[in-house]
Design brief:
Strand order of the largest sheet: 2-1-3-4-5
Radius of gyration: 16 Å
Helix content: 25-40%
Structural class: alpha/beta
Shape: globular
Low-confidence stretches: none
Number of strands: 5
Mean pLDDT: 92
Order of helices and strands: HEEHHHEHEHEH
Number of helices: 7
Largest sheet: 5 strands, mixed
Length: 168
């Protein structure tokens, strides 16, 4: 609240869900990039995910990054990684609880890679909103070819304001 007692402006849904994805990213155990994702239907959060090793496996924060050791650039050779991406983990969370996500939207801190986009397409999600670009040309081509609505949310300041106000 401001000193006059007035409420701060409510964030739009995109800023709200991207702020939630940023919060999810704080659980990441990737040493290269923290990513969070939220799956939403009808303005309701159905599942969240962050990038990190599978349950029960050692984390890169503990043993180091194989991709870093091998000098593999971002956007290449996704299969050489201990971790699952945030979007994968959000889809897996929905599946493990029996939550249908057909027709949903995915909000992610980063543009999904081509592997995640294939999962998003096949899970029935229809829209992706992300904050930061990711270097994967196949991802963009697959989204365009399959009609997945894909939007980059460019106003990072609004999302950060949401987080600041939430912690005040």
């Amino acid at each position: 609240m401001t000193s006059e007692g007035a409420r701060a402006e409510r964030p739009d849904w995109e800023a709200y869900f991207l702020a939630m994805a940023l919060i999810a990213s704080t659980r990441s155990t990737c040493v290269r990039r923290r990513v969070g994702a939220v799956i939403v239907s009808g303005n309701r959060i159905l599942a969240t995910g962050y990038n990190g090793s599978p349950s029960g496996a050692r984390h890169c924060t503990d043993i180091g990054c194989l991709r870093q050791r091998l000098g593999i650039a971002s956007g290449e050779r996704h299969e050489i990684c201990r971790g699952s991406h945030a979007e994968m983990n959000a889809i897996a969370q929905a599946a493990s609880s029996g939550t249908p996500i057909n027709g949903c939207s995915v909000y992610s801190t980063h543009e999904p890679c081509s592997i995640c986009v294939k999962l998003i397409i096949n899970s029935g999600c229809r829209r992706i909103v992300f904050m930061n670009r990711y270097p994967d040309e196949l991802s963009a081509a697959l989204r365009e070819e399959t009609g997945i609505v894909s939007e980059m949310y460019g106003d990072h300041d609004v999302v950060m304001r949401v987080l600041r106000e939430a912690s005040a």
